[in-house]
Amino acid sequence: MTKDSAAEGPDGEACDCAGSTGGLEYRLATDRSLLQPLRDLLLQIEAEGDIGISAEKEVAYFGRGTGAYFAVADSTDQVVGYLSGTRRNGNAGDHAVDDGAVVAFIHMLAVGQARRGRGVGFRAVQLFAEHAREVESASLLALQLDDGGDFDLRRARFERMGFCFEELVGLVNIDELLGLGFS
Length: 183
Hints:
The chain has 183 residues and is α+β, with helices and mostly antiparallel strands. It is 30% helix and 32% strand. The strands form three sheets. An eight-stranded mixed beta sheet has the order 3-4-5-6-9-10-12-11, sandwiched between helices. Helix 1 (35-48) packs antiparallel against helix 2 (55-64). 37% of the residues are buried. This is GNAT family N-acetyltransferase. It comes from Solicola gregarius. GO terms for molecular function: acyltransferase activity, transferring groups other than amino-acyl groups.
């Protein structure tokens, strides 16, 4: 995959999932050539112990190419993070949402320690929200935090993105997250 390529959605549909933050270009990539750099990053994140992650399990999901599993790559093709998510109809974790609502659910978001606090995670969430809206027709984005590690810090970061939490489950309107819900 080149910097100008589009990532493919879970159904093989093209999705232009790229944008810049902090002077670097980021994209959600499904390119299998990123498998080893992604494995290295996830093993590092697993060793840090800040979030509960099984690096090999996540790499296996990415390698199969089913579902929405993305490496977060910068303009130099360095893998700096990982995001996985799926489409859900009418539920966000353990909580029901409005009838008929299509929910994009973030299962995992991980950013390498060297890039944390620089907007990489936020940009990855935005790119996934764009993908979910365009490819999956989702109107809501949800996630469920685990209560270990730096829980308060992670929750605060998602709240700054606009997520509202009920216990461990956060939910945000995709148009509001992308700035389209404000006049």
